[in-house]
Design brief:
By secondary structure, the protein is an alpha+beta fold. Helices cover about 25% and strands about 20% of the residues.
């Protein structure tokens, strides 16, 4: 939600998570979701080149009416089967529920958002932090997107800030000195790790 002169309008943020890697893909953000919006998201997710659902077999989801017949049909045609959870059972989808709690407590509830662009920027920065800078206990305290770099136990500790210091990542200088010219950069909505030839879309 965001504050306006007429009150607090609500936005729909649709995301998907790969349970094996904990990688998150934001499917879309809109002030009003519709069947056409969901169908376009389904086509994006099942794109043969870079769709997030490429190689996936199942989609576990709740009973929200957003998951229309056309949305599920597009997924089925791509080989992704729908697994609908029983009513009122958030405990059966704990990883997604935990992500919602994490982004709300660690980011969105600490900000006053004026407009959809501000919301998109906040979510984009958090997802980048979630993938590249946040250790995960279920992954043995590893990063979702690991970067092979020299580790250094001595020297000054640096801080990388996002969103004005709401999100912080602490590291030593040597931890960001990549071999063979590896470096990290942000281009539009993509985080690109040079040298690995992989793109991680937010």
């Amino acid at each position: 939600m965001r504050q306006t002169c007429t009150g607090l309008p609500r936005f729909v943020v649709l995301f998907f998570m790969d349970l094996s890697t904990r990688r998150v893909q934001v499917g879309g953000i809109a002030s009003g979701a519709s069947g056409l919006w969901m169908s376009q998201i389904a086509r994006n997710l099942t794109d043969a080149v870079d769709g997030f659902f490429t190689g996936k077999r199942y989609l576990i989801h709740d009973r929200d009416p957003l998951y229309t017949k056309e949305f599920l049909s597009i997924l089925k045609d791509a080989g992704v089967l729908s697994v609908k959870l029983p009513p009122r059972s958030p405990n059966l989808n704990p990883f997604a529920e935990r992500f919602v709690r994490t982004i709300k407590e660690g980011c969105l509830e600490q900000m006053i958002l004026f407009g959809q662009d501000a919301l998109r920027r906040a979510i984009q920065e958090f997802v980048a932090h979630y993938h590249l800078e946040r250790n995960h206990q279920r992954l043995r305290n590893r990063l979702i997107v690991p970067i092979d770099a020299a580790t250094e136990k001595t020297g000054p500790v640096r801080r990388r800030q996002r969103l004005g210091g709401i999100l912080n990542y602490y590291y030593r200088d040597a931890a960001w000195q990549f071999e063979s010219g590896w470096f990290l950069m942000c281009e539009s909505s993509f985080w690109i790790v040079r040298g690995t030839e992989k793109c991680f879309a937010n």
